[in-house]
Automatic annotation (TrEMBL):
The keyword Ligase does not apply. This is Putative MFS family arabinose efflux permease. One of its GO terms (cellular component) is plasma membrane. Pfam families: MFS_1. Signal peptide: none annotated. GO terms for molecular function: transmembrane transporter activity. Keywords: Cell membrane, Membrane, Transmembrane, Transmembrane helix. It is found in: Cell membrane. The chain crosses the membrane at residues 26-48, 55-73, 85-106, 118-136, 142-164, 185-208, 220-241, 253-272, 278-303, 310-329, 341-359. It is a multi-pass membrane protein. SUPFAM superfamilies: MFS general substrate transporter. It comes from the Bacteria. Residues 1-363 form the Major facilitator superfamily (MFS) profile domain.
Length: 373
């Protein structure tokens, strides 16, 4: 799912050339997917009612497979955008339903590690998906990368149908009830941190290929390798944060925010060579790898009796932030040049640090009590 969402990141330059649009405009392939995902998450969650979640997940993954094939075929940018809208619909629904499944699949003592395992898919997509897409695009063209991901989506559909148990809905989720969760202070504060971290990350990361080529002087053939370095850092950060966040949500996110801001802001200063870029990308991946599991834990603790509802809000804000980050980054790239998105991304990460340091953060063991750590 996340590979489908992020695939244009490693292919932005060839997509823009083939479909005859600027790199900033090509970045809209990420913006529209995130924006549609943001709206579809709470809507799909409310619309599916009490239908078995396994059936819904399989149906949404078939939609994503078809959307990737359409993107691969797209003769122009309008068709590509339609394909990315379909990816967004599927993505929002899958994220909203799958993000909170750990509690239903494992014993209570294994929920934390299982949640980290589910969210490791995000980091693994960075390690395997985005770099593999860049490699395939370099070898046989960007369209082949979309075809390949479409085929993999069908394989995942078969695996889910065979391996997941029946997952009847625990309760129908009303859209009004989901929206009322915004009124909980700890939920609203957590969503603000998600918005700042993810918007800042994607303002810069959407344009990581142009950054590497234009700022760091990296050859096109080396981009996939550096994205692999980033992804390995992401997997490490995901599990490191998953192990730590159960003890301190605030402390974990403060470390994540400092590392994310520093790695992005230092690229124009220390990332002017392939080696410097590789080191900073590793730290960047390490930091961003901890964002999903840390913020999802925050929100689960803040609303323990509304798991699907708060997860759908998390997905909506997360993907809206992806869309906003990619859009804002594109406008800044086109207006001020590639280097400028790094300053934007770093500034937003620093904003998340301030909110985390000053806001009320739920304490593990004190969910629903209003206590903060």
């Amino acid at each position: 799912m996340v590979t489908s969402e992020m695939l244009p990141v490693g292919l932005l330059t060839p997509i823009s050339g083939s479909l005859e649009v600027s790199e900033g405009t090509a970045g809209l392939t990420l913006t529209v997917t995130g924006l549609v995902g943001a709206f579809s998450a709470p809507l799909v969650t409310a619309a599916v009612g009490r239908i078995d979640r396994r059936a819904i997940l399989c149906s949404l993954m078939v939609l994503v497979a078809a959307a990737n094939v359409l993107a691969a075929w797209s003769p122009n940018f309008a068709v590509m955008m339609l394909a990315r809208v379909l990816v967004g619909i599927g993505m929002g629904g899958v994220w909203a339903l799958a993000g909170g499944l750990a509690v239903r699949l494992v014993a209570s003592e294994s929920i934390g590690p299982a949640t980290s395992m589910i969210f490791s898919g995000i980091a693994i997509a960075s390690v395997v998906g985005v770099p593999a897409g860049a490699y395939i695009g370099e070898l046989v063209g960007w369209r082949a990368a979309f075809y390949a991901v479409g085929g993999l989506a069908l394989l995942v559909t078969v695996a889910m149908a065979l391996l997941l148990p029946p997952l009847p809905a625990e309760e129908a989720v009303a859209l009004g009830g989901v929206m009322r969760l915004f009124g909980k202070l700890q939920v609203a504060t957590g969503l603000a941190v998600v918005a700042l971290l993810v918007t800042g990350h994607f303002a810069a990361y959407t344009y990581v290929r142009p950054i590497l080529e234009n700022v760091s002087g990296v050859e096109a053939s080396t981009v996939g390798t550096l994205l692999l370095v980033y992804g390995i850092g992401g997997i490490t950060g995901n599990f490191a944060a998953g192990a730590r966040v159960g003890r301190s949500v605030r402390g974990t996110l403060l470390v994540v925010g400092v590392a994310l801001a520093a790695s992005v802001l230092l690229v124009p200063l220390l990332g002017l060579s392939t080696a410097g870029a590789a080191i900073l990308l590793a730290v960047w991946g390490l930091a961003y790898g901890g964002v999903s599991v840390s913020t999802q834990t925050w929100l689960a603790l803040a609303a323990p009796r509304a798991r699907e509802g708060v997860t759908s809000l998390f997905v909506a804000v997360f993907n809206g932030a992806i869309a906003l980050g990619a859009f804002a980054g594109g406008r800044v790239v086109d207006a001020f040049g590639t280097r400028s998105v790094l300053w934007l991304g770093g500034a937003l990460a620093l904003g998340a640090l301030v909110v985390t340091a000053l806001g009320r953060v739920p304490r593990p063991g004190g969910a629903g009590t209003g206590s903060a750590n």
